[in-house]
Design goal:
The structure is a homodimer. Chain A has helices spanning about 15-25, 70-90, 110-125, 175-185, 205-215, 225-230, 245-255, 260-270, 285-290; strands at about 35, 45, 50-60, 95-105, 130-135, 145-150, 170, 190, 195, 235-240, 255-260, 295-300, 310-315, 325, 330. In chain A, strands 10-12-7-13-11-14-15 form a 7-stranded mixed β-sheet. Chain A has a 4-stranded mixed β-sheet with strand order 3-6-4-5. Chain A is globular and about 60 Å long. Chain A has 2 domains: about 5-150, 60s Ribosomal Protein L30, Chain: A, CATH 3.30.1330; about 160-330, Alpha-Beta Complex (Phosphoribosyl-aminoimidazole Synthetase, Chain A, domain 2), CATH 3.90.650. Chain A starts with 12 loop residues before the first helix and ends in an 11-residue tail after the last strand. Chain A has 9 helices and 15 strands. The interface between A and B is large, with 77 and 77 residues. Chains A, B: It catalyses: thiamine phosphate + ATP = thiamine diphosphate + ADP.
């Protein structure tokens, strides 16, 4: 766990002013080699080949993160990860993040610094930088908005609409771990000091719980795998709202039916099943409907599965049923929907 | 004034879900010609020449806008305008906005639609589109984050650090009008139905008050003028935090002294002076320290003033004094600082 003492006070950001906060975090922000002008002017300036991709996500305290569960470093990592996953899901190379933060008085200067460090570490790991931002007061909780930019370097983007009948449905990354972590925190079984003693005495189960909690706090989507595979993929998304709902989106955008095979998803269920007794939903539900691991679901020719991906189903012609499992239409809530 | 009845209720965004809200606003969002993929995939995809510029701003309800003063359309226009000004201040052509919104229950679907219309109208007027976004719940007030992207089309960016000794300081756009509008609202003299009857009976003063209030609600920076002039300018910023503070930023970035001439700023003072009796600060203070008109302050060779700009001072060698007026160092608060 990271230093949680930093979450509150030390220096109130509102006493520092925007320039003061920027001075406090400037050394953790490193620019990417393709950056011509980093933070500090009206805009960042980036050298690109093009086409350029852009995506934005807003994280709201109490809605997307809880300070009792996540350190500011975790929150920064998470904000970066989910946006970088969107860029990689297009097959693009992430080049820059620009970050807006609305901060209440309790968000200390050190809070901002830790969050910026989480953002910058994740960006740097994939060759991007934090190239600009805006800091302002919030009258509610903390709000973080991250916009990620990427460079396709002359390649065609991998869209949701490219799935073809006969394709394999493939996946890279984990499913259900973030949801499992969330349910552990939400039930009070996972705490800032780790899994509650009374939850279980089995060491492998405890380690699995810690791993799921870590994915919930800050997912680790396999960005390099997705970007490296892009040339072979016909369609791709990162799984943010659950495998079922995101497969539905590919189905509708591509005009196809997405047919999942439960035996091919069994390894994902088996991975999180040891925590079933500590969770309120089944392993199968967490794998199928839990989002936010930001795995990559894609489709490609069945004889050209890219490295790091594995098959979980097949693309069939449109049948009125967007998503099925073992030929049974998927019913009930398909997964998480924002605002819903 | 625009339909203020739309501000509250009709359809609670939280009942529509993110897809429902997107469906409600999709017809007001038009993509730019350079957009390959607009909203609806993991990222927007833009065709660019490059280098690319990027900037982001966060607008917080109660901090940057007040619903009793501004319609959702105004708020959308304002959010777009201040980001588009940052792009133009680099000499770049705005190409896309991506928009994040955190919405409490009272932000109706129609509220989002009106705000999106304001954003889209301003983007379209300069050749850009709304190419992506994120909608989420807020537990506090409304938070809008806008990221603007622009294309330098092979040109060198105009930075804050480019001012040269011997340059003229030039400006395009208005100064002090936004601050004047704010003071009228803040004193209760300007209301949603216009200037209070008892404030003045003089028609020109009433019209001026309405004009200043409109600039406060949604500024109109001369974007085309700034972009068209870029090749002749050595340094440029949009005035967001007040002329004094923003000149200080140019002074420090360029290692020069910015020497303003009060006689050359007299027309700006004279424009807003008729409202002095209704404001709490002097015309001179509003012109020098009031930000958010998003005028463009720049420097260039004194014999090559671009069309649409006029001289307000000169760039001298660094003297330890960042900004002076009529050779007197500027003292006291230099202008608005976020978080301060």
């Amino acid at each position: 766990m990271r230093p949680r003492a930093l979450v509150r006070s030390i220096v109130d950001a509102s006493e520092l002013g925007e320039d003061g906060v920027l001075a406090l975090i400037s050394d953790v922000l490193t620019s990417a080699p393709t950056t011509i002008v980093g933070p500090g002017d009206d805009c960042a300036v980036l050298e690109v080949t093009g086409p350029v991709v852009a995506t934005t996500d807003v994280l709201v305290e109490g809605e997307h993160f809880v300070q009792d569960w996540s350190s500011p470093y975790d929150i920064g990592e998470r904000a970066a990860a989910q946006n970088l996953a969107d860029v990689a899901a297009m097959g693009a190379h992430p080049s820059a993040l620009v970050v807006g933060m609305a901060l209440p008085g309790h968000a200390a200067g050190e809070w901002v610094r830790e969050c910026a460090r989480g953002l910058a570490d994740r960006a740097r790991a994939i060759g991007a930088g934090i190239e600009g931002g805006d800091l302002t007061r919030s009258r509610g909780g903390i709000v973080i908005s991250v916009t990620a930019l990427g460079d396709l370097r002359g390649r065609t983007p991998v869209l949701r609409s490219g799935a073809r009948v006969g394709d394999a449905i493939v996946i890279a990354g984990t499913l259900g771990m973030s949801r499992t972590g969330f349910e552990l925190y939400d039930a009070g079984r996972m705490t800032p000091t780790g899994l509650a003693e009374e939850a279980t005495s089995e060491k492998p189960v405890r380690e699995l719980a810690e791993a799921c909690a870590a994915v919930f706090r800050a997912p680790n989507p396999p960005l390099h795998t997705a970007i490296g595979a892009a040339a072979r993929l016909h369609a791709m998304m990162d799984v943010s709202d659950g495998l079922a709902r995101d497969c539905q989106r590919i189905a509708r955008a591509s005009g196809v039916s997405m047919c999942l095979d439960s035996t091919l998803l069994a390894p994902d269920c088996q991975r999180v099943a040891p925590l079933d007794e500590l969770c309120r939903s089944t392993a199968w539900s967490r794998v199928l409907r839990g989002g936010e691991d930001h795995a990559f679901v894609a489709t490609c020719a069945p004889d050209a599965i890219p490295t790091g991906f594995r098959i979980i189903g097949s693309v069939e012609s449109a049948s009125g049923i967007d998503v099925s499992v073992d030929s049974q239409p998927l019913t009930g809530p398909l997964g998480w929907e924002s605002l819903a």
